[in-house]
Design brief:
single chain; about 110 residues; mainly beta; 4-stranded mixed beta sheet; 8 strands
């Protein structure tokens, strides 16, 4: 596993109008230090796990696109059909879980 340092993970659902989807928009953010010029980003894990209430995301890095300054903010957004579509978010890096966000706040 490559060396990474992460912190400040948070998740919230934005319910403020206008909503692009019925359940609002889920936002997941965190700070990542790749200890290199690699750029970090989040993407939805495919396939998802057996519990549809837990969102699984992969933290990935890419070399050579744009030199990144560390620490860097990563984010993931998803339109939801219901505001309580997910109860938690798990973040994985190179196959291993690095964090779990157990509280998804609502922003009105």
């Amino acid at each position: 596993m490559s060396k990474l340092t992460t912190s400040n993970w948070a998740a919230w659902v934005n319910l403020m109008p206008p909503r692009p989807t019925p359940g609002g928009t889920l936002h997941v953010t965190g700070d990542v230090d790749t200890h290199s010029a690699d750029m970090a980003y989040l993407e939805k894990r495919i396939p998802q796990g057996i519990n549809p209430k837990i969102l699984l995301l992969d933290l990935k890095t890419v070399t050579g696109i744009v030199p990144a300054t560390n620490p860097q903010k990563v984010h993931y957004n998803e339109g939801l059909q219901q505001k309580d579509q997910y109860t938690s978010v798990e973040i994985y890096y190179e196959g291993g879980r690095i964090t779990m966000i157990e509280e998804i706040r609502e922003v009105q």
